[in-house]
Amino acid sequence: MPLMEFICSSAKPSQCPETQEPEFAFLGRSNVGKSSLLNMLAGNKKLAKTSGTPGKTQLINHFKAAEGFYIADLPGYGYAKVSKVQRADFKKLIYGYLEERSNLSCAMVLIDSRLPLQNADRDMLAWLGKRGIPCAIVYTKADKNTKAALDKQLAQIRNSLLQDWTQLPPEFVSSSVDRRGGEELWAWMIQVSKSLA
Ligand code: GTP
Ligand code: MG
Predict the structure, then answer these.
(1) Of the ligands numbered here, which is closest to the C-alpha atom of 81?
(2) Structural domains in the chain, sorted by start
């Protein structure tokens, strides 16, 4: 079981811990399952706070894996049910972090496997691409669909993404309920962090 410890919460990008190690950021719309994925990888449901109400994570939360790399669990973006003011605050924090974090190795963009590609996700991936920030996609909540419905939905999302991209970034299919995709994702993160260390 991977070991992970909570390091700190930051209200501003400038308050983030000063580290040199590789870092992965968990990004995605509010409620997509960022904090749940982190807990699933850590095998600890209480490590990051999760909630059925969007907007739970309000700060940048840093965690360190025993393997030496960091994971930053960020607030969510682009969810209509989160207040306008809060959405603007989260946006400032997320983009500020992405612009300033020099040790960011990979932006992990979490996408809800049950929905068509949302504009907020398309925009985030385009923004990352423009800046040349490496990214990967993690489709979440795979347990909520049958295999056939999941495959159909993923094919649709990929088709939408291929309107903007000639090649897709690495993709993972996950569920924090049945834990699928966890080992594969963790092995990949270790491999990436080792290649950068
Ligand atoms: P914010 O911090 O608000 O941006 O949300 P988040 O992306 O961190 O989502 P969080 O992990 O808090 O999960 C949101 C809700 O989705 C919670 O009710 C979780 O239990 C549920 N959830 C997360 N991942 C999964 C999953 O893989 N399967 C199912 N069925 N539910 C999930
Ligand atoms: Mg969260």
Answers:
(1) 1
(2) 4-191 (3.40.50.300)
